[in-house]
Amino acid sequence: MWNKLKQWLHPDHITRSSIKEGFDDLPAAVCYFTPDGIIRLCNRQMFRVYRALSGRDLQSLEELHQQVWAPTHGRRVDGKNPSFVLPDGTCWLYSEQTVFGEGVRPHVECIFSEVTDLQRQRQELLRQNQELLRMNRELRRLSENVQEMTREKEILEFKTRLHDEMGYGLTAVRQCLLQRKDPAELEASLEQMNKAVQLFRKDSETPPEENEWDVFVEDAAQLGVTVALQGPMPRQHQQLLLTIARECITNAVRYAGANRLEITITPQGGGQRWQFENDGPPPADPAITPGGGLTAIQRRVMQAGGTMEVQARPRYRLCVNLPKEETI
Question: Do 228 and 216 form a contact (C-beta atoms < 8 A)?
């Protein structure tokens, strides 16, 4: 068997026919033309590719050039070397060069190499690039939204503080005028209005204040309201507690003529429950619609991860439920 195989592999057995068979079996489409553009050697794959492009058989280099520049069927994709997408969806890269051989005239070598998988990968990369561009635009839009939300939050916090201070001042002045108090007390009440004006100054220009809770209790006393706190003062949400308490004081004096505000803080499921009650009569309408001040407070409570509810019966009561505070 081995002797027969060696005999068959002997160079004498390589014929023109065997060369043509091997040439036809190449996966690439290859054709050689004489300098005059006449076909010298062409494999079956070239005939198949050319027929798919033109709808007819290949006859000359000129005809091939016509289809390379403007294919009758399929689609040309320009690049360093043009490629062609045939009607069956396969993609072929075209190349052309002049080859020289010893003792023979130069020939023109034309080759179509299948690059279908590479083309699909290229299309996938283009698709992914488009998706990345879309995601980048979305991230920029989200970043702009975050900046806008941060700006709106800062404006809201400023408006809330301004509302609290102005409300305190106006309520204090109203109380002094209704009760015909001494002008000196009226001047002290106007100091609350001055605090609101101070909010327009830069933080660096504002001198450090006393303990905010003590200031709040003193301000409430000027309005004739005693503040009673039961339970531990929250660590992280003290500013929120003060904001809600100031709003409750303002509403209690303005609408209920109250003299006392009770704040009860109790543990609840790892978090806290805050309850604000005054000793004034309940509102005539049990259906309470939160106004601007309560709406702003409710928004801040939600930002802190909590919930807020307002009850009218049997007494006016504002309740806030907050989750467990983060450990710092």
Answer: no
